[in-house]
Amino acid sequence: MTAYLFKRLGLSMAVVLAVVVVLFSLLHMIPGDPATIALGPRATPEAIARYAAKMHLDQPVWKQLVIYVGNAVTGDLGVDVFSERPVTTMILERLGFSMSLVFAGMGWAAVLGIPLGCLAAVKPNTWLDWITGVISVATIAVPSFLVSIWALLIFAVGLRWLPAIGAGEPGDLGDQFLHLIMPAFAVGLGWVGYLARMVRASMLEVMGEPYIRSARAFGLKPNKVIFGYALRVAILPTITLIGMGFGGLISATVFAEIIFARPGIGKLIFDSVMARNFPVVQGAVLVATALYILVVLISDILIAMLDPRVRDSL
Amino acid sequence: MRESAARERREKLKLFLTNWQGVFGLILVLLFFASAIFAPWIAPYDPNAIDIPARLSKPSAIHLAGTDQLGRDTFSRILYGGRVALKIAAIGVSVSLVVGLLLGMIAGFGPRWLDNLLLLVFDTVRAFPTVILALATVALTGPSLAVVLAIVIVTSIPSYARIARTAALSLRNTDFIMAERSLGAGLGRILWHHVTPNVMGPLLILGAMDVPVIVTVEAGLSFLGLGVLPPTASWGTILNEGYLVIRDTPWMVIAGGIPLILTTLGFTFLGEALRDVFDPRMGRGR
């Protein structure tokens, strides 16, 4: 287990480092001088020189990369071009809004989707199974940003049940919860069907295994067999799926944050892209990607803990 | 020999035609192709013809899907938007399939270090959530259709490459490849004549499943103003313009979303039916 842990950790670090290099080279691959791009064509030569010195643009590229990585490791991601606020602070302020959205979206999808998949597998070819199938297809076919727009149309513009924009008054938890409902609904909806399908498929496979029959033959209660024995194995592919699909979840979160004007990381990246505020784009993209890699790492380790066979395959 | 192959093909076709989801998907897919290709002949109006007095009108016999904030006919714009979607999907799928196939075979048949390096590259590319990668790229290059296409291709390649690699690895030590090798066949011949035909099926099925993803990415990026730029009609720009006037009329965001859902539904059903018929091992369980 320890060997697996170290290998997996090393691989994740390598990917994060590669991401930093790619992000960094993107900035240098485009034609033109980064300072002019950042400040616009009408910037004075003095302003450009000042910017170049501040961002270490007068150093060779590899040295700039080393400086950036060194600073990033100590938690310094540079400063906002316009307000000169530290990027790290800006990200930390907004991280909570994105995290709460991701967890709320994934959470309600898992709470609804996993039991739905279990029930559909336990009672195949019943109305419950049929409804699960319809829900799966219907929710997968609608792109998440369309769910956001249509939810906004129905619940905020049409019915006026829920607030349309923002994240709610700071300190007022009830208000913040109301503002979380629609984005979380939009982010999670596709996952309800996805998880239900996945759990149903792997449950059906596991339910046919001899050890499930043995457990039944020993007279264990059906619920104990289903949730204690079958689900424990059937959940494995689902955990991988959640880890792998986390990138899609982040994309959905970005759309939801922009459509509902929720001040999270996604909105921060979008606004910075529009304002051509590169240090913020770079820092926020790095943090979002690192978080994603962390989630994949956790899901892989979780699987290795639950299923010893995986440990030898890396 | 030839007769049994023909019989098998007929049986597979019958199997596909009895799958209602597959047939339904095929109809939707054909509809998508036809509406995009024949848009100039079907569209009742010029997609960019402005008619201010008729702006933001409801669906009616004159304007089947209503009009937008400039009085342009939404139905015509949807038809023309389908052309953008089709173009991106066709180029995106074919380029990433070919490049993915090549890289996958290189990873599978090449030396171990190259395999590991390519896997690391694939993982890195997949590590970027698509929208974030797109935002980072557009921040530097500015929005355009070419950027959307590049992003679609780069993010799709790893999934094709992984399938090709797995197939190449499992074929590498089979008896018939060994036999071919001992007869003196070169690597190029083995890859082209023996590996490619074996992995083409799964790759094409993945291609069908990939179309909705690509179309959604294009629409999503255009919705954010990072892809197709106005006044060009795209499902994403229609949704974006509709989002801006959502308090005045619901029809634009409704009309702009429906083709997206139908396309996704069509290709998903078609891809799954093809998979069930031709490659039952794929997608069982995981």
UniProtKB/TrEMBL annotation, chain A:
Keywords of this entry: Cell membrane, Membrane, Transmembrane, Transmembrane helix, Transport
Membrane topology annotation: Multi-pass membrane protein
Subcellular location: Cell membrane
ABC transmembrane type-1 domain ranges (all copies): 95-303
Membrane-traversing stretches: 9-30, 95-122, 134-157, 177-196, 233-260, 280-306
Protein family according to the UniProt entry: Belongs to the binding-protein-dependent transport system permease family.
Main location: membrane
SUPFAM superfamilies from the UniProt entry: MetI-like (SSF161098)
Protein name: ABC transporter permease
Lineage: superkingdom: Bacteria
Database matches in PANTHER family: DIPEPTIDE TRANSPORT SYSTEM PERMEASE PROTEIN DPPB-RELATED
Pfam families according to UniProt: BPD_transp_1 (PF00528), BPD_transp_1_N (PF19300)
PROSITE patterns: ABC_TM1
Automatic annotation (TrEMBL), chain B:
Xref: Pfam families: BPD_transp_1, OppC_N
Keywords assigned: Cell membrane, Membrane, Transmembrane, Transmembrane helix, Transport
Domain of life according to the entry: Bacteria
InterPro entries the record matches: BP-dependent_transpt_permease, MetI-like, MetI-like_sf, OppC_N
Annotated ranges, domain ABC transmembrane type-1: 82-271
PROSITE patterns cross-referenced by the UniProt entry: ABC_TM1 (PS50928)
Principal localisation: membrane
Membrane topology of this protein: Multi-pass membrane protein
Compartments where found: Cell membrane
Transmembrane regions listed in the UniProt entry: 20-43, 88-110, 249-274
Entry similarity comment: Belongs to the binding-protein-dependent transport system permease family.
Protein name: ABC transporter permease
Upper taxonomic lineage: Bacteria, Pseudomonadati, Pseudomonadota, Alphaproteobacteria, Rhodobacterales
